[in-house]
Amino acid sequence: MMAGVERKFFQGGSTGKTPKYSITDYHKEHFKTAGEIMAVSIVQGGSPPNISREWCYGYISTGEMDRDSISKEDVTDPELSQLMEEVEIAEPEAMYDLLDRITACGYSGPATWERKEEIIKGRKALWLKRGDPCEDNNRE
Q: How much is the pTM?
C-alpha cells in the first residue's frame, strides 16, 4: 500500500521525495487520503513512511517551513531546476537572455546579475508555494 502511495503522489530520488504538484489530486482530497493511510500504517504498528525530504517532513509535522534551509537539490521541478542553474552560472550579459523565463516563473523584481541570489531564492520559494496546497491537505 505504501509503495503505491509513494509512486502515485511523490516524486524524487533516493535522497527523499516531495509531493507531486497535482491540483486535481488536491481538489479530490487524494493527498489527505494518502496522509490518512500513512497515519493508519503507523498507528497499526507498521513502519513509518520514509519517503519525504527533511523539509517536507518538518512542514508536515510542525506546520512551519524554514524556507532558508531549502537547497537547490530540494527543487524537483526540472524546469525550475534548470533555470536556477542557468541563472547561477550566467554572466551579466546572459541575464537578459533568461529574462523571459525568469518572469514566466513569477519573478517580478529586476532580473539583473547583481540579483542572482534573490532570483534563485525566489524560484525555490515559488516551487515550495506550488507544493504547499498538497502539503496542507496532507497534513490535515
A: 0.53
